[in-house]
Design goal:
Blueprint (H helix, E strand, L loop, with lengths): L1 H16 L15 H7 L24 E4 L2 H6 L6 E6 L20 H18 E9 L5 E2 L2 E2 H11 L13 H8 L5 E4 L2 H24 L2
Parallel strand pairs: 1-6, 2-3
Antiparallel strand pairs: 4-5
Helix pairs in contact: 4-5, 6-7
Length: 214
């Protein structure tokens, strides 16, 4: 009993020593982490090593919906100009997308080649430390692991796997509500019109609320 109490007391002292006690039993903690990071002479505490880039003029793109092939539109945008990209490309599962002549069913080699070119443009226009968020359905179609192939494409560009294709504009609508600058791109004219109408309706309702004092 005395030995058990001694063991419990030792564990309690160790929990006090390490603030993240939940991980204590699963991994060894690093003592004096900051001092050791400085000793290793990495870049974390070196302000001079931070990347500084010239701010690019993207005024012709900002807060607008651009209807067209995202690959072609992205090609016209300047390097290192965008902070974050959020996209959900077609799944190529045979879904019924309006105005899609291929009916979401093109040869897989063409599908992945097209996406790879788009990822390349996304990577080019992202600022250093920028982010790209891709909604990929983790499913197999025709026994093709689309989720893994797309993640590998992004990884090959040097991106850490963790939109360019707009859809009906939920992302741009949320950006508008949060007063964030945004650029929406989609090849479907119908989707672009819907996205624009959603923003117009939101602005209309906002002006009405302001007028009513709400």
């Amino acid at each position: 009993m005395q030995q058990l109490q001694s063991t419990i007391g030792e564990k309690t002292d160790r929990y006090r020593e390490y603030p993240d006690a939940k991980l204590l039993c699963r991994e060894r903690k690093v003592k004096d982490r900051k001092d050791k990071e400085i000793r290793r002479d990495g870049s974390k505490y070196k302000i001079d090593t931070k990347i500084r880039i010239k701010e690019m003029d993207v005024s012709k793109w900002i807060n607008k919906i651009h209807c067209g092939d995202s690959e072609n539109i992205l090609e016209e945008m300047p390097d290192n100009s965008i902070d974050i990209i959020i996209t959900s490309p077609p799944y190529n599962f045979g879904l019924d997308y309006k105005e899609d002549e291929d009916q979401d069913a093109i040869h897989w080699s063409h599908y992945f080649s097209k996406l790879n070119r788009i990822w390349g443009e996304c990577f080019r226009i992202l600022k250093p430390a920028g982010r790209i968020c891709v909604n990929v359905q983790p499913m197999f179609s025709d026994y093709i692991p689309t989720h893994h192939i797309i993640s590998n494409q992004l990884s090959d560009l040097g991106l850490l796997w963790k939109g360019a294709i707009l859809g009906v504009g939920t992302t741009t609508l949320v950006a508008e509500k949060l007063n964030r600058r945004h650029i929406g791109i989609d090849i479907s004219e119908n989707y672009c019109n819907i996205a624009e109408e959603r923003i117009k309706e939101y602005k209309k309702q906002s002006r009405l609320q302001d007028f009513m004092g709400g």
